[in-house]
Protein backbone atom coordinates (compact mmCIF):
# COMPACT_ATOMS: atom_id res chain seq x y z
CA UNK A 1 0.00 0.00 0.00
CA UNK A 2 1.40 3.39 -0.94
CA UNK A 3 0.82 6.70 0.79
CA UNK A 4 -0.40 9.65 -1.22
CA UNK A 5 -1.61 13.15 -0.41
CA UNK A 6 -4.97 14.01 -1.96
CA UNK A 7 -6.82 17.29 -2.32
CA UNK A 8 -9.01 18.34 0.61
CA UNK A 9 -12.29 18.00 -1.35
CA UNK A 10 -11.40 14.39 -2.18
CA UNK A 11 -10.51 13.71 1.45
CA UNK A 12 -13.85 15.14 2.56
CA UNK A 13 -15.77 12.89 0.14
CA UNK A 14 -13.76 9.82 1.17
CA UNK A 15 -14.54 10.61 4.81
CA UNK A 16 -18.26 10.91 4.02
CA UNK A 17 -18.21 7.60 2.17
CA UNK A 18 -16.48 5.93 5.13
CA UNK A 19 -19.19 7.29 7.44
CA UNK A 20 -21.93 5.98 5.12
CA UNK A 21 -20.25 2.58 5.07
CA UNK A 22 -20.05 2.46 8.88
CA UNK A 23 -23.65 3.64 9.27
CA UNK A 24 -24.90 0.94 6.91
CA UNK A 25 -23.43 -1.71 9.19
CA UNK A 26 -25.69 -0.67 12.07
CA UNK A 27 -28.78 0.64 10.26
CA UNK A 28 -30.20 -2.08 8.02
CA UNK A 29 -32.89 0.05 6.38
CA UNK A 30 -33.10 0.08 2.59
CA UNK A 31 -31.74 3.63 2.23
CA UNK A 32 -28.79 2.98 4.54
CA UNK A 33 -27.86 -0.25 2.76
CA UNK A 34 -28.17 1.47 -0.62
CA UNK A 35 -25.90 4.32 0.52
CA UNK A 36 -23.44 1.84 2.05
CA UNK A 37 -23.21 -0.14 -1.19
CA UNK A 38 -22.72 3.03 -3.26
CA UNK A 39 -20.03 4.24 -0.85
CA UNK A 40 -18.19 0.91 -0.99
CA UNK A 41 -18.21 0.90 -4.80
CA UNK A 42 -16.97 4.49 -4.96
CA UNK A 43 -14.21 3.84 -2.41
CA UNK A 44 -13.10 0.73 -4.31
CA UNK A 45 -13.00 2.60 -7.61
CA UNK A 46 -11.13 5.52 -6.05
CA UNK A 47 -8.62 3.10 -4.52
CA UNK A 48 -8.02 1.47 -7.92
CA UNK A 49 -7.56 4.92 -9.43
CA UNK A 50 -4.99 5.85 -6.78
CA UNK A 51 -3.14 2.54 -7.20
CA UNK A 52 -2.82 3.04 -10.94
CA UNK A 53 -1.59 6.68 -10.66
CA UNK A 54 2.17 7.06 -11.04
CA UNK A 55 2.57 10.81 -11.41
CA UNK A 56 3.18 13.62 -8.96
CA UNK A 57 0.54 13.78 -6.25
CA UNK A 58 -0.17 17.47 -6.89
CA UNK A 59 -1.13 16.53 -10.48
CA UNK A 60 -3.69 13.90 -9.43
CA UNK A 61 -7.30 14.55 -10.41
CA UNK A 62 -9.86 11.85 -9.76
CA UNK A 63 -12.24 10.85 -12.51
CA UNK A 64 -14.25 8.86 -9.96
CA UNK A 65 -14.79 11.58 -7.36
CA UNK A 66 -14.95 14.61 -9.65
CA UNK A 67 -18.47 13.63 -10.70
CA UNK A 68 -19.50 13.57 -7.03
CA UNK A 69 -17.95 17.00 -6.46
CA UNK A 70 -19.91 18.44 -9.38
CA UNK A 71 -23.30 17.47 -7.92
Briefly say what this structure is.
It is built from 3 helices and no strands.
Helix content: over 70%
Counted up, domains total 1
**Residue-averaged pLDDT, rounded?**
91
Counted beta strands: 0
Computed over alpha carbons, the radius of gyration is 13 Å
* Shape designation: elongated
Task: Provide an overview of this structure.
It is a single chain. This protein is mainly alpha-helical and 71 residues long. The protein has one domain (16-70). It contains 3 helices and no strands. The protein has helices at 8-26, 30-52, 63-70. The mean pLDDT is 91.
Give a topology summary.
Layout: H1 8-26, H2 30-52, H3 63-70
Helix pairs in contact: 1-2
List keywords for this structure.
mainly alpha, 71 residues, elongated, 3 helices
Amino acid sequence: MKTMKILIPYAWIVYQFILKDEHGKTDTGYKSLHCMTYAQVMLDEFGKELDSFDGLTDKFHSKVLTSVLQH
